[in-house]
Design goal:
Elements (H helix, E strand, L loop, with lengths): L1 E6 L5 E6 L5 H8 L18 E3 L2 H6 L5 H7 L9 E3 L13 E3 L6
Parallel strand pairs: 1-5
Antiparallel strand pairs: 1-2, 3-4
């Protein structure tokens, strides 16, 4: 199991456990993370799973595709390291990652 910690806008830290190949969105929804609504079910079509990665983790990920960057243009207050959690596949190397849920997601 891979552990990813989600930092909710309220300050709560939620540890989510996932398998390699799951998405950050699946891990967040499974752990009941507040602010990751995932209304489109992971299709990358709504932006309700917006999250912000720490720069060092963002730099290790494959770059977002053009569909994801287009959708991120519509989220409130996108950051340079914003991602749609539905588009980030969890790998073994992500154990211990911390992900910020923006306060705009509440």
């Amino acid at each position: 199991m891979i552990t990813v910690t989600f930092l909710e806008a309220s300050g709560n830290r939620i540890e989510a456990h996932a398998n390699a190949g799951d998405t950050l969105m699946q891990a967040a929804v499974g752990a009941g993370v507040e602010g990751i609504a995932a209304e489109c079910g992971g299709a990358g079509a709504c932006g309700t799973c917006h999250c912000v990665l720490p720069q060092d983790w963002f730099d290790r990920m494959p770059a977002p595709n053009s569909d994801e960057t287009d959708m991120l243009d519509f989220v409130i207050d996108p950051q340079p390291t914003s991602r749609l959690s539905c588009q980030v596949s969890i790998g073994e190397n992500m154990d211990g990652m911390e992900v910020q849920v923006p306060d705009t997601q509440i």
